[in-house]
Design brief:
Blueprint: E1 4-5, E2 7-10, E3 13-16, E4 28-31, E5 37-40, E6 49-50, H1 56-59, H2 66-73, H3 75-84, H4 89-100, H5 120-125, H6 134-151, H7 156-165, H8 167-173, H9 180-192, E7 208-211, E8 217-220
Antiparallel strand pairs: 1-5, 2-3, 4-5, 4-6, 7-8
Helix pairs in contact: 3-6, 4-9, 6-7, 7-8, 7-9
Length: 232
Amino acid sequence: MRWRSFLIPVLGGIVACWPTASALAGAYRLVDEEGVTHITDTPNDPRFQAVEGFSGTATGWLKVPQAVRGGLAFAKEIRETAERYDVSASLVEAVIRVESAFNPWAVSRKGAQGLMQLMPRTANALGVRDSFNPGQNIEGGVRHLRYLIDRYPGNTALALAAYNAGEAAVDYYRGIPPYPETQQYVRKILERTGGAAPVPAEPVQVIYRYETADGTLTFSNVPPAARPRDRR
């Protein structure tokens, strides 16, 4: 008799069918892209590896990643909020996955909070009273993402860059800022949603013309205002 064993994450826990230790002698294991472990005696993928006869629970194979658990727990809120603001649910899910790995209590080193990592000032402007309330945080984050998508119509990459680094940085560089964190951020999300990875924009040389306090007319490649800083 042939058998298969599956790990199935469900809301509030895991449903797992696990074979006996003796049966594991002919088992094969595969950890997929989401970190979920699959066990079978009939491998149909070259990535499956033979399993020695010991417990997957003891070795931690059956631990479902936070991102998988969270994705299930907040799926309904993500879908409904995305529909309300006409934003792709898969895009929202990818942003949350990269921002916080679905941890509603996440706090970045710069103070961004919650699932979609809202800075306190941004959260306040969006009417989010409690950034650690998943519903409020997702609502505010998706509304902000909608605004950025409208601000950079037809260019999701720029909207994502602005979500990460701020609009001032995107406007200053006239493209994705040359910040490694922002470039990786945009690339990860677009890869998860099937979009093409963007080519980082090179800074555009701009000549500024302004008049000083004593009436001197000045031309310079240095803007009169201070260079914008990464918002996070």
